[in-house]
From TrEMBL:
CC cofactor: pyridoxal 5'-phosphate
UniProt-listed InterPro entries: Aminotrans_3, Class-III_PLP-dep_AT, PyrdxlP-dep_Trfase, PyrdxlP-dep_Trfase_major, PyrdxlP-dep_Trfase_small
Transferase recorded as keyword: yes
CDD domains reported in the protein's UniProt record: OAT_like (cd00610)
Superkingdom as given in the UniProt entry: Bacteria
UniProt keywords, alphabetically: Aminotransferase, Pyridoxal phosphate, Transferase
Keyword Transferase: yes
Annotated GO MF terms: transaminase activity
Protein family: Belongs to the class-III pyridoxal-phosphate-dependent aminotransferase family.
Native species: Gryllotalpicola reticulitermitis
Protein name: Aspartate aminotransferase family protein
Length: 411
């Protein structure tokens, strides 16, 4: 593989893809690879979905882009659909291109509305690599220079005791009481890059109440959790809260560069005015057509119910993998967003092991991704994945993990 003419921002796996079909992609050698990551968590209705592709092509045959001051019927229809599925949020929306872009949009507007610069975030949260988004990613440790002030807090885990959760909320309230410059709290309802951490609903409900009490906007990064991933349209609906702003990307674009910022009706009413925004790809007819096609397909085929069903099957298969392998522990997930930890005695740095796992699984026809330095495997497959692909792929994962651990002569 010759990648000499690509800017080397990341290492590439030794496979060149030529096409996709459903939950699978195919290499130049014709090998079928089951993709347990749905691209970069984006191709949620599969590759080459003829019904989806035909509808997008029909909608965009004559109009794909307009000036920022002109609105198409597709954009109006998408905004109405998003308003409807947002439920109690009763959201207004803007269609943009990437997750980092909508995070920047939400941060800028939150600071403008509140007239304050501060942002609370999770210490291990991920929100993108543009400067503002990176400043609240992993506590801002990699942003140079960081857009301050940023207030990182530990992300609560559903395994925490009630005492730990109470202490976390008390610490959060003290921060809100003593820091008079906080505009927003920006968090993921499920912390993906930070280790597949699932904050309990009770903590999120309490955090929402604290934001209300201290006049702080609650901004949810649902770029991974949103648009059906958890079996509900949005994770906030599953957890029983109503945010002020939501950032959406990945699934909402079906693999195309489409992202959306949603603002709660009360935010729009109270803001009075918002900063002007101009982008070459803002409320594009093309992006709106993708959103409309996605919502229509998901509702017509009852895809959310399928996500819940396949999510249950996937979690059961993960639990079976953990039962069969001493090196896979703590299977967890909701809908089709799941994780499991590697556990190999004597290993402190999982990066080399993870690299070996990825290569061996590619050879056996499975695509995976890890987080937390390779110590956590995360699974965000497409919403239409079959039970056979789930079970066979996870059988291979367990097999390769055990083989790799044995080859290290550890455990």
């Amino acid at each position: 593989m010759d990648a000499n003419h690509l800017i080397p921002v990341i290492g590439f796996d030794d496979v060149v893809l030529t096409r996709g079909e459903g939950s699978a992609v195919f290499g130049q050698d014709g090998r079928r690879l089951v993709d347990l990551t749905s691209g970069q968590f984006c191709t949620v209705l599969g590759n080459g979905n003829a019904e989806v592709q035909d509808e997008i092509a029909r909608k965009t045959a004559s109009l794909v882009n307009t000036s920022t001051a002109l609105i198409s019927d597709e954009v109006l229809a998408a905004a109405e659909r998003l308003h409807r599925i947002s439920g109690e949020m009763r959201a207004s929306s803007i269609i943009l291109s990437t997750g980092a872009e909508v995070i920047e949009f939400c941060l800028r507007d939150a600071k403008f509305i509140k007239g304050k610069p501060g942002v609370i975030c999770f210490e291990n949260g991920y929100h993108g690599l543009t400067l503002g988004a990176q400043s609240v990613t992993m506590g801002g440790g990699y942003a140079v220079p960081r857009v301050s002030p940023v207030y990182p807090i530990p992300a609560p885990d559903r395994d925490w005791t009630s005492e730990q959760l109470d202490a976390s909320l008390a610490s959060l309230e003290l921060l809100m009481q003593t820091s008079g410059d906080i505009a927003a709290m920006l968090i993921e309802p499920i912390v993906s890059v930070g280790g597949m951490v699932f904050p309990p609903a009770s903590w999120l409900v309490a955090a929402r109440a604290l934001c209300d009490e201290y006049g702080i906007l609650l901004v949810l990064d649902e770029c991974q959790t949103g648009f059906g991933r958890t079996g509900d349209w949005f994770a906030y609906q599953k957890f029983g809260i109503v945010p002020d702003m939501v950032a959406l990307a990945k699934a909402i674009g079906l693999g195309y560069p489409v992202a959306v910022a949603m603002f709660r009706d009360t935010v729009i009413a109270q803001a009075g005015r918002l900063p002007a925004h101009y982008s070459s790809h803002q409320n594009d007819p093309f992006g709106a057509a993708v959103v409309n096609t996605a919502i229509d397909y998901i509702e017509r085929h009852d895809v959310l119910a399928n996500v819940k069903k396949m999510g249950t099957i996937f979690l059961e298969a993960l639990q079976e993998a953990a039962a069969s392998s001493p090196h896979l522990v703590n299977p967890r997930g909701t809908g089709l967003m799941l994780g499991i930890d590697l556990s190999i005695p004597g290993i402190a740095d999982y990066r080399p092991i993870y690299s070996t796992l990825v290569g061996r699984l590619l050879e056996r026809g499975v695509i995976i991704q890890g987080t937390s330095g390779g110590s956590v495997l995360r699974f965000l497959p497409d919403y239409l994945i079959s039970e056979d692909d789930i079970r066979e792929s996870l059988r291979k994962v367990a097999e390769v993990v055990d083989e790799t651990a044995a080859s290290l002569q550890v455990g």
